[in-house]
């Protein structure tokens, strides 16, 4: 069955890539400003010149206030944090703690009421919605609790369309899907024999592993996972956590996971605890039995050219 974007426009994952299925980027840099053109469309982004050891995710005094009728509700209160390249960080807290709102802020899916987010040297506060969408497609891979796979496409189709709409280019031309890299992901995530199946023919754990492959096929610098084990049983949850940890170690991608489960969070190298919209404490994570043996890395580091 052919993919019809009209039938899937309400799917959250499709919304992430809103802005077009094509795009050849050309650009020039002058001082601290960079101008990029998407065919006939040009836009300017403000960059933060990184130090040698600059964090890849930087949040400064983030506050998000929602209007609930006439009563303002503060979901995130003055949160500041920094995540280094290649780090695996978990943010854990109960329902209503503000962790999901923080996820949306860090992913550029919503704007902060106060404060700023700098992702891989780019200040999201300076961008329009369209500009944030373009940068998101190149720099961030998203994994959601509800998978958000397109039901009429096979697992392979879901992965391929994520690559197609990312607008990745090489030497001014649309980049072809890297089949060798896809094979590596499929083997690592144990889905190689399931790629021809539609989501309804896959288990919950398999669907989530396909969603992880979809997030990683564009080689994002950052993977953001929102309750990735929330809809899974214990066995499937452990498998998905193993895969997230392995991909972090093998592919060198920075991983930030949101969860309500302290046990799941313990696989991270660092755990931030949230309550009432604030980060209240931090600790190191160490879950016995979850260490992944060193493996040969995929050629080249995780990069995200824009």
Describe the overall structure:
It is a single chain. With 306 residues, this protein is an alpha/beta fold. The protein has one domain: Rossmann fold (3-Layer(aba) Sandwich), CATH 3.40.50.300. It has helices at 5-8, 12-16, 99-106, 129-139, 155-166, 179-188, 204-216, 234-251, 262-265, and strands at residues 25-30, 33-38, 41-46, 57-68, 71-83, 88-92, 114-119, 122-123, 140-143, 169-170, 173-174, 222-226, 254-259, 270-275, 278-284. The protein has a 6-stranded mixed sheet, with helices on both faces. A 4-stranded antiparallel sheet has the order 5-4-7-8. β2 and β3 form a beta hairpin. α5 packs parallel to α7 and α7 runs parallel beside α8 (234-251). The radius of gyration is 19 Å and the shape is globular. Mean pLDDT is 79; it is low at 19-48 and 291-306.
Descriptive key words:
single chain; 4-stranded antiparallel sheet; 9 helices; disordered C terminus; 15 strands; globular; 306 residues; 6-stranded mixed sheet
Concise synopsis of the structure shown:
With 306 residues, the protein is α/β, with parallel strands linked by helices. Helix content is 28%, strand content 29%. The chain is globular.
């Amino acid at each position: 069955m052919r993919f019809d974007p009209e039938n899937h426009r309400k799917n959250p994952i499709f919304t992430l890539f809103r802005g077009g299925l094509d795009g050849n980027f050309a650009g020039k840099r002058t001082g601290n400003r960079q101008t990029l053109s998407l065919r006939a469309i040009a836009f300017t982004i403000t960059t933060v010149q990184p130090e040698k050891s600059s964090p890849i995710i930087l949040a400064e005094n983030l506050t998000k206030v929602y209007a609930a009728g006439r009563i303002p509700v503060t979901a995130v209160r003055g949160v500041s944090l920094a995540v280094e390249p290649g780090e695996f960080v978990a943010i854990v807290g109960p329902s209503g703690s503000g962790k999901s709102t923080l996820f949306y802020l860090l992913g550029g899916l919503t704007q902060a009421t106060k404060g700023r987010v700098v992702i891989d040297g780019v200040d999201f506060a300076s961008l329009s919605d369209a500009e944030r969408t373009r940068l998101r497609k190149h720099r961030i891979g998203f994994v959601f609790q509800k998978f958000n796979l397109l039901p009429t496409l096979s697992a392979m189709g879901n992965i391929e369309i994520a690559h197609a709409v990312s607008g990745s280019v090489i030497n001014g031309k649309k980049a072809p899907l890297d089949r060798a890299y896809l094979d590596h992901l499929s083997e690592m995530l144990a889905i190689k024999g399931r790629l021809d199946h539609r989501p309804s023919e896959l288990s919950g754990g398999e669907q989530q592993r396909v969603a992880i492959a979809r997030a990683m096929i564009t080689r994002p610098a950052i993977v953001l996972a929102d309750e990735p084990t929330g809809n899974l049983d214990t066995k499937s949850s452990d498998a998905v956590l193993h895969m997230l940890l392995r991909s972090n170690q093998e592919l060198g991608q920075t991983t930030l996971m949101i969860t309500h489960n302290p046990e799941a969070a313990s696989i991270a190298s660092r755990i931030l605890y949230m309550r009432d919209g604030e980060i209240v404490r931090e600790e190191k994570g160490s879950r016995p039995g979850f260490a992944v043996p060193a493996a040969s890395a995929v050629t080249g580091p995780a990069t995200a050219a824009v």
